[in-house]
Amino acid sequence: MVRTRYAPSPTGFMHIGNLRTALYEYLIAKHENGAFILRIEDTDQQRYVEGAEDAILETLRLTGLNYDEGPGIGGDYGPYIQSQRKADYLPPALRLIESGQAYYCFCTKQRLSSLADERGIMKYDRYCLHLPKEEIASRILSEPYVIRQLIPEGKTTFHDEVYGDITIDNNELEDQILLKSDGMPTYNFANVIDDHAMAITHIARGCEYLTSTPKYTLLYEALGWPLPRFVHLPLLQNDAGQKLGKRNGAISIPQLIDMGFLPEAIVNYAALLGWSPPDNKEIFTLDELTQVFDATNISKSPSTYDVKKLTWVNGEHVKALPPEVFAAMALPYLQAAVKKPGTDYNRLAVITQPRVSLVNECGELVDFIDALPEYDIELYTHKKMKTNPDIARETLKLAISSLETLCDWNHTAIGEAVAIKAEENGYTKGQILWPLRTALSGKPSTPCGATEIAELLGKDESLQRLAIGLKKLEV
RNA sequence: GGCCCGUUGGUCAAGGGGUUAAGACACGGCCCUUUCACGGCUGAAACAAGGGUUCGAAUCCCUUACGGGUCACCA
Prior knowledge:
single chain, mainly alpha, three-stranded antiparallel β-sheet, 11 strands, 44% helix
């Protein structure tokens, strides 16, 4: 059974990069009907951020990446918070010491930092590797210590599902710390212990871990455990070409949602960053992604987050929303933009749904209903409609005269009335409808035509606006 | 700096020895349309550079350049 895990540390919010990692973990598991596990890696008490864990849980919930095992819901391999598994890390470390694959180290941080070169790069010199057993036995009782893994000579090769075989010379690797002086495991060590304990089969993570993966494989080998499959993901970068991160302008998922992006669109877009299906389809629901996702189609090169494409993807999802769902989502924005009594908000929702990329844009599309905005008479000029302010002055007069007496105030009747009038006086439909729409809305573009706007506004308001328009043109 | 990875239009990306080098976003034009949008059509726009290997290289190899990652008692 395929088992994957998303293993964030509670140090901040989730941005699109984190979400993509979680998503791929989810998809790899779900594509095979496997299990997706959430594990919180809080072994660094210094960096712990209050509320970060809840924020992560919330983001996963909003985006529909439901985990099968994890904090809050438990599972057969719990607990799923590393600080609660503290007792599990010492035994394997001791086992490695017994077999000569790890050793105690009492070096102080001062001594360690004195080992650094001018660039601050250092490699442990194995000062404590050959300490006499008796000395170790007594110092353990009185001094802080760490446990380090003894990296063997040679080269280490591992296979990555995306990058292929990668070989690194072991002398590039330091005798890494397994257990810190506070008794907590380091990230690398806890990762290996827990992934094995939780029977994780696939590890997807950013390729910033590519060079440290040999350390993991060495650990698995030392402990005699089978290796999981590694799926390293190309980095996501910002416009400056830097790895996307909290410090590099990445915005959080809840923030994106606040901006009007739909969770399913964010998920859809995240999937496309570094992966594409064989048929090049671009719009997917999470279920559809689950069907077609294949880790072998993940690309090796980094990609850049592009809000324009996200916006387009969002627009596609908005259009696909059931009308009543869109109406419910749009209602607050429509109500804020249009306060006129008797407004049919469902109608406004129907009109705006196919025309917005972001739900919260629907308000500004219809805000002219409440109040006619100030506009320039140059709006009456339209080359294709063959209109200009002079023609508009005449056709507006015709429109007013034909509508004043119109009893049946609906857009069909309005359209017929003005069309006949225009024709009688030698004008085209466009020459009367363009000025009509302009005078009624005061905007260069509106979400529907002149006659619909007139119906929406009602007879009195419409005639009033036409009079205002005419007055502007007569000055 | 050592090591690792990468480099196809502005962006996301197909293509893994023979293609007129797909498609999508954004941008321009045209059509449709009483506006906008949708839709349709269309335009401009790319294989980092140099060497090999080959009848033939975006594709394989080497070098260079550029970009990124990584070298913690952080994850």
